[in-house]
């Protein structure tokens, strides 16, 4: 049997009103990545999202990014290695403490946006990120882009690593995500997303933007709450999983 975690980035709004968990997504995912307040989120939505995750028995992760609210953390900040270390340390510690205060326990860490992409490529940034996580809690699971430098750094440091793939993002021939400014970088149709999910989960490979295929390990599948017809897509994934001997469940800490 194939085991698959489904994760989703959340708490990326700024209000006391209705939050993304009200969409019903928590029912269909097994882990959630909660923004830590620098690229998005505020104390209120962070707490509400943690509480929703606890109600649904969804594993809670910190989702740190660059301090870039205007750019939603998708712009490079050109920080030093030490500054990246401190940035990640601060955000993960804040999410871990808030989660503990609300009766939960932090399960994993997944970077956001430009920091996610840059740590996937630059070994020195990957090392800074991994060191920050390990200095807080070496039992935390690192969610990292499949086949990336961050995966390598995490494993070298002895962290448990979950290699992440994406249901609705197009891939380049080198196994990296296609830049968002590239036309077709985000898959819109449910059929496209389902086909990519099937390929990633069952065959551990993905079709790239130039029609080639690249092999990728798929421990956890990322979906985005703002994606078109996200609930219908998640329901379809669960239905497909049952028919194909794929067990959707959270990643267990070793």
TrEMBL record:
GO biological process: carbohydrate metabolic process
UniProt xrefs under Pfam families: LamB_YcsF (PF03746)
InterPro entries in the cross-refs: Glyco_hydro/deAcase_b/a-brl, LamB/YcsF/PxpA-like
Record-given protein name: LamB/YcsF family protein
The species this protein was found in: Brevibacillus fortis
